Amino acid sequence: MDITIHTSFLPHDDPEESLAFYRDVLGFEVRSDVGQGKMRWITVGPSGQPSTCILLAPPFADPGITDEERRVITEMMAKGTYGWILLATTDLNGTFEKVVAGGAEVVQEPTDQPYGIRDCAFRDPAGNLVRIQEVG
Questions:
Q1: Would you say 77 and 126 are in contact if contact means Cβ atoms under 8 Å apart?
Q2: What is the dihedral angle through the alpha carbons of 68, 69, 70, 75, rounded to the nearest 10 degrees?
C-alpha cells in the first residue's frame, strides 16, 4: 500500500485568531479559506510540503451534533483536551522563542523527556494542544 497523511483536523472557535496563530506565528501557508463568519474551513500547511495539511474547522458544523455534545465539546476545547497535534522542528529552542514571541500560551518549555525526545508544548487560540518535537 502507498498511504500518506494528507490532512489532519483541528477545531477552531475563532477563524481570525486561528489564522494569526498558524499563519503568522507558526509560518504555515494558507491553502484554502472557505465559508464565512465563524463557519470557515481553513486549510494550512508547512511551506514546501504541499501535500501535508491541517484543516481548521468549526466543531459544530455537523447538524447531527446534539446540544449535550456541543456542551461537552465546548468544555473539552476550553480544557485543551479535544484536539491536539504533534509537529516537528530541527531547532526546538529557536522555534520555541519565535512561538513565545508570537504570544502563544506556553504549556511546557523545551524539555528532555525520559523517553528520549526533547519537546515543548503550546495551546492554540481554540485550546488545542500543539506539541513540537525536536528531530535530527
A1: yes
A2: 90
> Which pLDDT does position 86 carry in this prediction?
96
Q: Contact, 84 vs 102, CB < 8 A?
A: no
8-state DSSP, 21: I
Collapsing DSSP to helix, strand or coil, 50 comes out as coil
- Strand partners of residue 108: 121
Provide the sign of the torsion angle of the four alpha carbons 41, 49, 88, 16, taken in this order. Answer: negative
pLDDT of residue 132: 98
Q: Which of 27-36, 59-68, 123-132 has the lowest mean pLDDT?
A: 59-68
Question: Around Cβ 102, how many Cβ atoms within 10 Å?
Answer: 14
Give me the chain's average pLDDT, please: 94
Whether the Cβ atoms of residue 132 and residue 118 lie closer than 8 Å to each other: no
pTM of the model: 0.91
